[in-house]
Amino acid sequence: MYQPDFTDILLNVDLLARGAWITIALWAIAFAFGLAVGLGLGLVRSSGNRWLSLPAAAYVEVFRNTPVLVQLVWFYYAFPVLTGWQMSGFTAAALGLALNTSAYCAEIYRGGIASIARGQWEAGRALGMGWARLMRRIILPQAVRRMIPAFTNRGIELGKMTAIASVIAVHELMYEARLLSSQTFRPLEVFTVIAVIYFIVIYPGTLLSYRIEARMARRS
Amino acid sequence: MTEAPLLRTEALVKRFGDLTVLDGIDLAVQPGERIAILGSSGSGKSTLLRCLNFMELPTAGRVHFHGAPVGTAGSRGEVRYRERDLADLRRRIGMVFQQFNLFPHMTALENVMEGPRTVLGQPRAAAEAAARAELARVGLADRGDAYPARLSGGQQQRVAIARALAMQPEVLLFDEPTSSLDPELVGEVLRVIRALAEEGRTMLLVTHELGFAYHFATRVLFLHDGRILEDGPPERILKTPREERLQQFLARFTEFGF
Amino acid sequence: MEYQWDFSVVARHLPLLLEGLAQTLRLSLAAIAGGLAIGLVLALMRLSGRRWLAWPAIAVIEFFRATPPLVHLFWVFYALPILIGVNLSPFAAAMLALSVQSGAFFAEVYRAGIVSVERGQWEGARAIGMRPAQVMRRVVLPLALRRMVPPFVERAFELVKTTALAATLAYGELLYQAMVAVSRSYRPLEIYSAVAVIFFLVLFGASLVMRRIEDRLRRVER
Ligand SMILES: Nc1ncnc2c1ncn2[C@@H]1O[C@H](COP(=O)(O)OP(=O)(O)O)[C@@H](O)[C@H]1O
Ligand SMILES: [Mg+2]
Fold first, then answer.
1. Which fold would CATH assign to domain A7-219?
2. Cα first-last separation, chain B
3. pLDDT tens-digit series, residues B23-57
4. Which of C163, C192, C199, C210 is the best substitution to test chain A (most A C-beta atoms within 10 A)?
5. How many Cβ pairs closer than 8 A exist between chain A and B?
């Protein structure tokens, strides 16, 4: 019978804590950036201007139809060859995750905007509002409320994605776990603990999304 | 009448693909006129109203506002419209919709203030005072803080009227303002419109309330297949219709009368 | 200096990459099959109305949906063998981890589909004298299955993308073979770009096909 031993993990708790901080930083940067860039892309996709909309659609489809690991590897190993700018793993991961998230968010914005009834546009236009003002004052405030469950979901998915940054040597939680596992020869303990840590951090997001969805269901 | 028409259309045509919805409309609206527009479903009534404030762009023909044509004619006779000019025009033409189209994320008061605040750039205090006055005019002085979802259909439509009035429009367009209301709520909206009529406002009203049209309007149009088939004072149009189409149309309203 | 593209590198390593693609598809299909089976079991447990069945199912579903797939992969490959005393091949580990992971998501698709069939359908079928089992088989399941197709497809696409993680276990799927090719050629730009293009063509092409099929299914329901 295998005897679990957690002393090595306890001795290295500071390492894991540092990794967890980097995970959180990665998540926050990528999510903030993804929400902002996604908004721009979503607006372009909703503008009805084909010359703007088509490139935006291509961007969205490229990021949604390739594995995020391939994207991170590409930004870390291939992009510097193209630009001559050698990014740190953290920068590459933040960039890749941010762009990936922005593509998904763009679709959320686009769908949310499209879900607003035509009458809202007409009422705004009848008051003499232009596209930008209508979008800002009438459409987006309503649409964003409907998007909140999807954004919450995106935040959860992004949280899980950050673990992939370990592959390009970002010293986030998963990386520290892999390191610890290979140094201590205790993969069972290490990866079990790591799984539980991720669960503790991410599951509140799931619970939050359940509450939001229940509240929205009640309202409609 | 010596005054220039407030609004005038000239050979107005609107097509959606192959479908010709407006087929050469010539109409002059004098200040102070109250025009009721009748016609069966699909005859182009809404489209006509929506071409007047350019919610739809005409396929051909022109619209003149205060004697000046809207848009600029290009070299091959096509007319170009600048969205900014159209937005400026819409500020001066109020529109009330069948489905109210209130902004659900704003209170009644905020709905009424929105245009004056953001489009006309009025200071908040002035816009709020004016909005309260408009709400009072439609009999909803005490419901300013309510969200649309908390209001009955009749109340929502009255807020929508107040919202249009707050822009101080020169013309009001009503597109079947009572058609989606429960019968017992129709009266409160019609009373508000009648009060506006008594102020001498210029209005165009698409409606199926023939009785109201008769008392309200200074002039009645009957639209059929995108053309104005009859045009005249309510007494003449509704009591002694000449066109067979109009007679049939009116007969449908009396079929189940008692 | 302007970068000199050299796509002959891609051409030279194309057999390797295509072999990787085949492995990607093999792992994807295996995990989809496993995930569908595990998901069905989890969904039925959850809908059984018996706590001792429902609660473990809920725990599995919630846990796997709230933890990174990469952690599942590493746990199955490095930690599970310690418990069961058998080493797993990278393929077996990846397939097992991804099956359970996607099964947690598939379970929710099954459940939502079954729950989505309106009471009216049940009542309509009962009213013409059908027995409960008949109603389930002839009315509820056909309706539910049709509604499940789009979310199943979406999940399956997510799963195909997730298989790239198996590269970290040195399983010879597309990304791993690309890493091998890069280590031989020192041409990361061309090769990783080619990998992205291959994934894109496969996934985007498949999504276009699936969209047409879904459109047809939707028309049937109307
Ligand atoms: N945006 C549109 N696109 C295509 N057809 C339209 C559009 N708007 C109106 N129509 C068509 O134009 C005709 C007249 O519509 P409308 O002006 O709404 O009639 P009414 O208000 O008299 O019922 C109808 O056949 C309608 O289907
Ligand atoms: Mg109409």
1. MetI-like fold (1.10.3720)
2. 41
3. 999 999 999 999 999 999 999 999 999 999 999 99
4. C192
5. 62
